[in-house]
Amino acid sequence: MAAAGLLGDVLDVVLVLNVQALLYLASGAVAYLGLRSARQQRAAVRQRATVDVG
Fold it and tell me: In the chain, where are the structural domains located?
């Protein structure tokens, strides 16, 4: 954040804020995809773990 403040003084403040927003959105998308794939893997393991005894 301090680096963004210093860059905001040198560059346009709105440009720095837009870049920060883009990075936040990108990191959120990566986290969402990671959590989604982890949930799918856990569900696949759970389905393999159940045994149909009948």
Answer: 2-45
Are 39 and 47 a contacting pair, CB within 8 Å? Answer: no
pTM: 0.56
**Cβ of 40: how many Cβ atoms within 10 Å?**
10
The confidence score (pLDDT) of residue 51 equals: 62
The separation between CA 19 and the C-alpha centre of its own chain, rounded to angstroms, equals 16
DSSP letter, residue 23: H
Which own/partner pairs from 33-42 qualify as long-range (CB within 8 Å, at least 24 positions apart)? none
At 52, the amino acid letter reads D
